[in-house]
Amino acid sequence: MENKNFYKEYIAPVVVLVAICLIVSTALAVTYAKANPIIVKNAKAAADQTRQELLPSANGFTEYKGKLDVLEENKVFVDDAYTANNGVGTVVTVETNSFGGLLTMMVGVDQQGAITGVKVTNHSDTPGLGTKNWNSNNMVTTYKGITKLNSTNVKDGQVKYVSGASVTGEALHKGVYLALEQVKDMGGAK
């Protein structure tokens, strides 16, 4: 009698929980295997579309396989760089530490070294505050046409940023600065 109670109270619940865990884990693995290729394909398509927006005269892009710049380890670094197949410029993806964590942005630079555009592609900043730097007053448009930033400090007066959201403004500024440096290091505009 005691063995039956022991089995009911201790062994049976463990067996049931292990079985549930195995079934759920298998279901998650199958879902991941089906969904991941679609997610990767969609992310690549979105990145390609953003590159085309930033360099509209490009006829396709090739990934740069050389050294990628780092301004601050794990805080401000180049994720990738793509050169236009017809030589009209480069689009650099930078991750930079912002108020809500890492912010991902793409910066287009033409063959003369002038910024063609800046677009934030992923962030965790406060909606309505940090995002004002690229939504309402659109700080990112003030970079268009700039070929050189004086410093990594957004408060140097070269561009406008949203006061009260200077952490995000600083992150954007450092990202643009690093993108220009990456293009120079790739042998682009001097």
Q: Which regions have little confidence, pLDDT < 50, spanning 5+ residues?
A: none
The total of helices stands at 2
Q: How many domains comprise the coordinates?
A: 2
What composes the largest sheet?
A: 6 strands, antiparallel
Structural class: alpha+beta
Round the mean pLDDT to the nearest integer and report it: 84
Layout of helices and strands, plus pairs?
Elements: H1 2-54, E1 61-63, E2 70-72, E3 76-84, E4 89-98, E5 101-110, E6 115-122, H2 166-185
Antiparallel strand pairs: 1-3, 2-3, 3-4, 4-5, 5-6
Describe the structure.
The chain has helices at residues 2-54, 166-185; strands at 61-63, 70-72, 76-84, 89-98, 101-110, 115-122. The protein has 2 helices and 6 strands, in the order αββββββα. With 190 residues, the chain is α+β, with helices and mostly antiparallel strands. Helix content is 38%, strand content 23%. It folds into 2 domains: 1-54; 61-185, no CATH class. Strands 1, 2, 3, 4, 5 and 6 form a 6-stranded antiparallel sheet that branches. The protein starts with a helix and ends in a 5-residue tail after the last helix.
How is this structure best summarized?
With 190 residues, the protein is of the alpha+beta class. Helices cover 38% and strands 23% of the residues.
Comma- or semicolon-separated keywords:
190 residues, alpha+beta, 6-stranded antiparallel beta sheet, 2 helices, 38% helix, 23% strand
